[in-house]
Amino acid sequence: MPIIFLVDFYIYRESVIGHDLEKGNLVARQYEFARLSIDPDQPKTRWAIYLLYGFVKKAMSERVTATLAHELTHFYMRLKGVSHFQDIIRMLLQGKSDFEIYQKQHEELTGFHELFEEPVRSLILKEEEEDSSSFARLAKEYCRNSRALSDQGFFETILGAEGAKKYLEEETEEEKRKLGL
Fold first, then answer.
1. Residue 96 backbone dihedrals phi, psi, to 5 degrees
2. 134: pLDDT confidence band, cut at 50, 70 and 90?
3. How many alpha carbons lie under 13 Å from residue 111 in its C-beta half-sphere?
């Protein structure tokens, strides 16, 4: 099972979604309050869930439960060998946007609520139905007083700058070999 870390940061993704002649590039920002990733002490052999402390403190317990179910499903899919990691590496090499990569990561979760019994199943469905304006308002509240990290910043925070560079280079090279690139 993955270890759970309560952290003082959230991860964000930004992508240009359009261009306005007066305002310039229109940027959308997406927040992650939780993420399944590597354990900093055992990055090759153990998984960890990083959970924003402000989210746990301020969100309703139902939302926290649904979010943990989401991250545990990512873990379960990795155990079952269902992963889009190679597709994601290919997309990174092709320069695809953060949002396109995020969508690919979450394809493996289609219908994941069916893996859970009630009441968790209903909590997941309720969270998925929430409109984006309500979510954006809550995101600002959960993230207040927390550090914002990009994907690169996330790895640098948990592994250190040199450790992150080494880990990401090794993973990219390994996936390139698997893809025959």
1. -65, 160
2. confident
3. 1
